[in-house]
Amino acid sequence: MKRGIFVGRFSPFHLGHLKNVKIILNQVDELIIAIGSAQQSHTLSNPFTSGERLFMIHQSLQSDKIPLGKIYLVPIYDIFRNPVWVNHVQSFCPSFSVVFTNNSLIRRLFSESGFEVESPELVKRTVYKGSHIRQLMIKGEKWEHLVPSSVFKFIMSIDGVERIQHLNQQTD
């Protein structure tokens, strides 16, 4: 059995992430989705709690009929110690043999630890990017077409747009 890990912050989980999950699932039997910076919330970069991000991802996968029995959702807290970060991640996850990331630091850390590392296709990266989606929310522009409908509904149900706009006002 081949198990991979896909690391991201998923703030919010968008259609690019969903497409990557589908692509990756064609290459592995099971996938760990590691929710990075899990201790962060209520900041402009990480406006959602790890529980909210976990819920968004779970709802999106379920709505898209992705077999949840093949998925592990694991929150990973930052430790800010790069030499031991891979071991830290491993301590929270089932074993895995391949890492999927486009983050150069994560790529280096896992490669140096002997893991196979692959870069998933960046799907319309200028459009499907968490920071871009959050900026659209701040400006009151259309963003709902960039996320699964379940994510849009959830963000609206928790007043997520208002939260992000409020966080942005605090930094001005």
What is the gist of this entry?
The protein is an alpha/beta fold and 172 residues long. Helix content is 44%, strand content 13%.
What is the alpha-carbon Rg in Å? 16 Å
- Shape category: globular
Secondary-structure content class: alpha/beta
Number of strands: 5
What is the overall pLDDT average? 95
How do the strands and helices of this protein lay out in sequence?
Elements lengths: L2 E6 L6 H11 L4 E6 L14 H14 L7 E5 L6 H11 L5 E3 L3 H9 L3 E3 L11 H10 L9 H9 L2 H12 L1
Parallel strand pairs: 1-2, 1-4, 2-3, 4-5
Helix pairs in contact: 2-6, 5-7
Describe this structure in words.
- There is one protein chain.
- This protein has 172 residues and is of the alpha/beta class.
- It has one domain: Rossmann fold (3-Layer(aba) Sandwich).
- 44% of the residues lie in helices and 13% in strands.
- It contains seven helices and five strands, in the order βαβαβαβαβααα.
- Strands 3-2-1-4-5 form a five-stranded parallel β-sheet, sandwiched between helices.
- Helix 5 packs across helix 7.
- It is globular and about 45 Å long.
- The model has no long low-confidence stretch (mean pLDDT 95).
